[in-house]
Amino acid sequence: MRSLGVVTLAVSALSALPFVLAQDSVSYDIETYGTDDPSGTPFQTYQSNGDIKPPQIHINSNQSGLAEGFVFIGVDGQPTSGQNFPTIFDMSEDRMGTLVWTGNYTEPFDFKAQTYKGQPVLTFMIGELLNGYGHGSFYVLNQSYVEIAHFSPVGYENLGDIHEFTITSDDTALVLVYTPKQADLSELGGAEDGWIFENIFQEVNIETGELVFEWNASTHVGLNESYNSIQDVGTEASPFDYFHINSVEKDANGDYLVSARVMDCVYKISKDDGHIIWRLHGKQSDFDVEDAVNFAFQHDARWVDDDQTRMTLFDNGPTDEIGYSRGLLLAVDQDAMTVRLINQFYNAAQTFAQFEGSLQAIDPSDENTNYFLGYGNQPYFAEFDKDGNILLDAQFGATNTVNSYRAFKLPWQGKPLTKPDIHYDKDGNKAYFSWNGATDVENWIVFTANATDSTTWYNVTSARRTGFETTIDLTDIKLETYVRAKAVNSTGGKLGWTKASDGTSLYDASDDVQEDSNNSTSTSTSTGTSTTAAPTSSSATAAAPSSSTTGAAVRAAQRVIEQVYVVAVVVVGGLALA
Ligand SMILES: *[C@@H]1O[C@H](CO)[C@@H](O)[C@H](O)[C@H]1NC(C)=O
Ligand SMILES: *[C@@H]1O[C@H](CO)[C@@H](O)[C@H](O)[C@H]1NC(C)=O
Ligand SMILES: *[C@@H]1O[C@H](CO)[C@@H](O)[C@H](O)[C@H]1NC(C)=O
Ligand SMILES: *[C@@H]1O[C@H](CO)[C@@H](O)[C@H](O)[C@H]1NC(C)=O
Ligand SMILES: *[C@@H]1O[C@H](CO)[C@@H](O)[C@H](O)[C@H]1NC(C)=O
Ligand SMILES: *[C@@H]1O[C@H](CO)[C@@H](O)[C@H](O)[C@H]1NC(C)=O
Ligand SMILES: *[C@@H]1O[C@H](CO)[C@@H](O)[C@H](O)[C@H]1NC(C)=O
Ligand SMILES: *[C@@H]1O[C@H](CO)[C@@H](O)[C@H](O)[C@H]1NC(C)=O
Ligand SMILES: *[C@@H]1O[C@H](CO)[C@@H](O)[C@H](O)[C@H]1NC(C)=O
Ligand SMILES: *[C@@H]1O[C@H](CO)[C@@H](O)[C@H](O)[C@H]1NC(C)=O
């Protein structure tokens, strides 16, 4: 939410120029979601930056009371979508759905902002996505979007898994590895000389590459705890995925919290020797778990508070009772060994996300914080107040076209080293300005001069930034040959200058220039961010997968491996499963 105070300040700093408060023009038409061509998800395009086309966000509903912060989406989907990049969106009231940053890293996983060595950073995993797991490495970018670290798990070069990259308060990283290991599968009806996926988590010193801690599931967890069935796997080429680790975090005491999808279980692991301190849910639960909590195929188990009394997780389901996915806020009592439901969170469509997904307590230090739900393999996210009321319900693509492993709402300040971008449409009397990743730009001030190396540039108009790209109408403004703009922050401080344009080409021009005013009586109007939906087919709409039946039949038939590029619809017992 923008405070009125800042707006007033900005207006007064710019009072010398005609000033227009512009509304963003991003609009969305559900009919444009083309399911004839699964790659045809709606995207935003820009005149000033032709390289990028992030997904267009459709706001199903929005209310007041949204938390501060930007939305972080690691877009994955059809390779032809041209959208598979880490992407940050502005969801504030008057720039809702507009792009903040996108970067050229294909198919990111677990994209988010974290703190590393005291500085805000962006982090993600990049690599090859395999059948429900991955092989890759981990990236850390600073606030200028420059890589400052890039590493692999220790002993597993480029074999880091997709599911987790969390930086601890000790500046170590928690990452996962799936690796084939020989195992006797006879107790499950498999081969004596069969193969499983060993599920490893490591704590790694990012700077030195030193291994701080390592834990292997097979050392501590029996095959008989798994709900997964062997089916036709269990070979070296296709190991049996009996555990499916998908989140790990380190608690305030240094012990670890691990989520394993096909165990329906969250484990607390000792920092001392890796032994299991307790199991929450699953076949061998140490807790009395109330029925309302019953979860299945879950992801993203997190402590909310350092005292470990509240836990969040994403319950993919389906369970016997519930056929849709939900975020769960749990009260965990480690003395009485009980788990009860505090609240659950789900969107209006009651989307079912078969795999992936996340639930974030946006400000864990605040007991009344909002919650942010990412629907994993379905392109939906939502924000809720603490009581589960929907404050924001959004989607960024058609069902089964694009997705984001997790979704977060987080603070971020970006200070790109690039120059801001300009497109000057001389015939159309318009100029377009954007700056990928620059969060502080509040206004664009337009200047003109009759030489690129002019030492004096005349300011002619300005406009408040409307979103990613701001369009400024120059119709009634007397211009010299060249046009450029200066990006300023909310207190009028200079952030950067664009190159100069004569409407045909871009030219280098000094940023160290005299600024002057011709007292032009211009009346500029700024229109909104230029946004065009992809050309898509006519009528098909993308209904959110919802469920009116119970999950019982579904659960029995569901395959428990994860697949990411699922576009075929499998019909199981009358319920369409993505
Ligand atoms: C992204 O990077 C690849 C290779 O690193 C390059 O070929 C491609 O042009 C880049 N795309 C954009 C939009 O910059
Ligand atoms: C948010 O909700 C308000 C009130 O219903 C509506 O006027 C506005 O258009 C919505 N914003 C977006 C971006 O959909
Ligand atoms: C990011 O790193 C680059 C390269 O070291 C440096 O030039 C830049 O100043 C850094 N940005 C920030 C915000 O620290
Ligand atoms: C985990 O398993 C891997 C592969 O079998 C092995 O190299 C490693 O030593 C094991 N680590 C621990 C802590 O058991
Ligand atoms: C799995 O086997 C172990 C060792 O025999 C046993 O202690 C445990 O109870 C079994 N668990 C289940 C869920 O059957
Ligand atoms: C435009 O260029 C001419 C010379 O070509 C110069 O005399 C004049 O001062 C320039 N005007 C501005 C506004 O810079
Ligand atoms: C600014 O003033 C100079 C000098 O009078 C003139 O040449 C130029 O055309 C004016 N430019 C604008 C944008 O009004
Ligand atoms: C605006 O930028 C100037 C530097 O150009 C800086 O001194 C000032 O603190 C910034 N204001 C805000 C609100 O960030
Ligand atoms: C435009 O130039 C005049 C003259 O230098 C200056 O007083 C005014 O503050 C400038 N306006 C902006 C928005 O920079
Ligand atoms: C611009 O307008 C202001 C206020 O009307 C006036 O004081 C100033 O002299 C004018 N400057 C020029 C260059 O005409």
Automatic annotation (TrEMBL):
Signal sequence interval, chain numbering: 1-22
Annotated spans, Disordered: 508-548
InterPro entries (UniProt xref): Arylsulfate_ST, ASST-like
Keyword Chloroplast set for record: no
Biased composition (Low complexity): 520-548
Keyword tRNA processing among UniProt keywords: no
UniProt entry keywords in alphabetical sequence: Signal
Domain of life of the native organism: Eukaryota
Protein name per Swiss-Prot or TrEMBL: ASST-domain-containing protein
